[in-house]
UniProtKB/TrEMBL annotation:
SMART domains tied to this protein: DUF3402 (SM01293), N1221 (SM01292)
Protein's name according to its UniProt entry: Striatin interacting protein 2
Pfam families according to UniProt: DUF3402, N1221
Domain Far11/STRP C-terminal: from-to ranges: 363-713
Acetylation keyword on record: no
Basic residues compositional bias, start-end: 249-258
Biased composition (Pro residues): 306-315
Keywords annotated in UniProt: Membrane, Transmembrane, Transmembrane helix
Amino acid sequence: SEGSLYMKGRRWMELSLEEQRVYVMRLLDALEVTDRDKRLKVARAILYLAQGVFDECDTEADVLYWSRHNVFLLYDMGIFTALLELLSMEIDNNQACSSAVRKPAISLADSTELRVLLSIMYLMVETIRVETEGDSPERKAAREAFKTELGSPLYNGEPFALLLFTMVTKFCSMNAPHFPMKKVLLLLWKTILFTLGGFEELQEMKVRMREQLNLSPLPEDSIKVVRQMRAASPPASAMELIEQQQQQKRGRRSRRPLVKQDSLDTYNERDPFKNDDARDEEDDPEDVDSGIEGEVDPLDRDVIIQPPPPPPLRPPTERVSFPRGLPWAPKVRYILCCFWFTLYFLSFLMLFYSDIDTLVGLPRPIHESVKTLKQVSMETFLCQSESPLLIGQGEEEVEETPAEILYLGMLPSLSQYVIALLKLLLAAAPTSKAKTDSINILADVLPEEMPITVLQSMKLGIDVNRHKEIIVKAISALLLLLLKHFKLNHIYQFEYVAQHLVFANCIPLILKFFNQNIMSYISAKNSICALDFPHCVVHEMPELTAESLEAGDSNQFCWRNLFSCINLLRILNKITKWKHSRTMMLVVFKSAPILKRALKVKQAMMQLYVLKLLKIQTKYLGRQWRKSNMKTMSAIYQKVRHRLNDDWAYGNDIDARPWDFQAEECALRECIEKFNTRRYDKNQNSDFTPVDNCLQSVLGQRVDLPEDFHYSYEMWLEREVFSQPIQWEGLLQAQ
């Protein structure tokens, strides 16, 4: 194996820690050789260590243990920095890029060095990111140091994530078609996840920031609420209704009536005010998972994702005092608060002139609105500080958070990054058709020699589908993380990214992704368990046959594809929420039937975000649609949070007006550009900056001159000073 480069016949497990460090140091020195083949051999030896010296292990647990041990050792010895230098060198290798561009077909052989380097870096980032109970204080300190290192502008003045973003844009611009995009996107996603934090860390950051701003605590933990939800049976399709009517005509009585709606939401389907007898009747085990239209279709039953068991019933007195049925605490929108707040000022303006602190007797939502108005006023004042009369008065202190550092680095090329990611998402979508001018995302999965047998063709087909699924998973998770963290850091950062997504046609792209047989996508089996790591290196490889490949694994659904679908729904929800023009885009693109088909997947979180997207456009779909989709309306009522002034179910809201997409987006874009100019444009108001008029101060300033300036100083003096006539009269007149 590659691990025996300097081992001289000794096993890695037999070496002491000091001997292992000496060995890694030799590998580090060997990475600097100029011979490309020798350097690749050393890199593969490092990859073998990062993978857990599997040739010496007997069980999968041993492989994982030694992989973790070796990864922390490699980081401690500075391997990651050396790998980063090699990666930068490979990215700037113009010879390899030009050779790949001229090739008619690109294969795995064109990206061997890049794939080895990216694999090591991915193993290091993912292994160090995940914290375990047995981690020592040294490992915890190494984790925090690595996290800070990745999120800080230490690599050529920019975070590590920006280097990976550059690889993505370079690939999509056809300048480097040999880049292994799957590995780049996975490493980019895990880097963002490590440096910015996942959803649980994001929830903790929300709580801390609300405490710092003296805001009321969150009414509930959204992660916990969603985890406790139960999936609902999907509404019946037209075909199912016809079949059931035919069964009734033949005299076959259905086991469950068609009009039953109590079991639509098995999370909270019971009315808390019913008597005990009625509750006992509903506890019939046959009705626990019953669908809206009776028996669930056998095809649907195969991919039902089992939710956690329901919480135990509370005593009757507690159920009456706190009614169940709505998992979310209702909220009130800012528009209503502004209305009452305006009335309050009109009534008491004469008594309390310019008083915005006396809020006695007003409900809590009004207090929240006042704080929001103060923040809006502060942002307006800061934007007005661009005036030459207010220079220096509107400066704000910006905390150098990892999200702030990342946004600052992404800002100059943000549109290119967004477009590149959406191009890759489009190319990896299962509904996309191959085009000659589209980018080739299969460069790091296609072998040099195409398969010649049926078994090889089936294996390659599974690899290609799995490859696309991983790309969709990485891009969807990456975009969602960026949106959520930028929204917490500053709302205009979130709006800037969201607007670029909208302008790059993200809304129709996601709808196109869901315009497929979503049940088949969720239950796809594009994986070969026998080839999964570390199973494949510990156990003997079984003989693969066409029958075993076609049967796939034993899982009834694919977590990877379910994860991607939920992420894409959440992205679509975030960029359209409370945006009238973007909501109308959902209506224009006829998203309602596409989203209704997605309700067939019986998973609570996915159904929640589908219902959210249906809710925001319900008022624009017309009375007939609402009348014929009452069960979907009931599901929205039971699962989605209520807004006290959101007239979503009737369509009587003032927002049901003609929409002007361009005007709304331009108004938002103006606010975003003012924010970016104020906070990040260092050259703003250069015409109004104070001028030093003191002669001694100006002449006393140090001016950096080139080293060879004194050689040509006399010539410069003669040409620029002595030979130039000075018009003193004109100078005096100008004064």
